[in-house]
Design brief:
This protein has 187 residues and is an alpha/beta fold. The chain has a domain at 2-26 and 81-183: P-loop containing nucleotide triphosphate hydrolases (Rossmann fold, 3-Layer(aba) Sandwich), CATH 3.40.50. It has helices at residues 13-24, 31-41, 44-55, 61-78, 92-104, 119-129, 136-150, 152-159, 172-183, and strands spanning 2-7, 27-30, 83-86, 111-116, 163-167. The protein starts with a strand and ends with a helix. The protein binds BIS(adenosine)-5'-tetraphosphate (B4P). BIS(adenosine)-5'-tetraphosphate is lined by residues 7, 9-15, 31-32, 35, 52-53, 56, 58-59, 64, 87-88, 90, 94, 125-126, 129, 142, 172, 175.
Length: 187
Amino acid sequence: MRIVLLGAPGSGKGTQTDAIIARYGVSTVATGDLLRAEVAAGTELGQRAKPYMDAGELVPFDIVLGMIENGLKTLATTNPKGFMMDGFPRDLAQAEALDQILAKINQPLDLVLFFEVDYEEIVKRLLGRGRADDNEETIRNRLRVYEEKTAPLIDYYNRKGLLRTVKGTGTIEEIGARIRAVLDEIA
Ligand code: B4P
């Protein structure tokens, strides 16, 4: 299974990944987690990424791509059960880069799972979480950036016939059941 989790920041992608990994045995790459690890370790890459993350902006393409390219190739070829991308791609340039990498290794995506959640619910969730980049101003900017750069991917993947939408509100278990209903079809 080769899938992408798509949705606004705070739509619950990260929350559902453990259950997906446990059920389907896929490997995962979460760009937000990788970036936060670089920041915490104080690497040069992390120092470059931090101001963008604190402002709720996308980290520049070269940083993200450099970070995931090798990981993605390894991931896509070493685990026969497949992979799940969380937080990547985030804009059209990243989506096209992902298509190219996967075409080169002949591992096309099976589907893109879109988490549909309205923005007021997201603001409530993220203010409750309290991560360093979860203050209201940064959250609102992340949603603006999402609307402008990431939301066009809904149409991009819909036109490719890959998009499957899951309602992302309700309990974590209810959402998990909706996800299983979609992913069991391709497992
Ligand atoms: P991410 O790490 O990807 O974003 P996130 O806010 O953690 O989103 P996620 O959807 O995973 O939310 P979660 O499950 O945790 O990105 C952070 C930053 O990294 C970006 O702003 C950007 O700067 C940078 N970045 C990352 N990838 C990049 C890329 N490819 N290119 C450039 N820059 C990139 O859920 C959020 C909260 O909701 C949690 O508190 C959770 O407990 C709660 N929640 C989840 N499900 C719920 C439910 N059903 N009901 C109630 N609460 C729920």
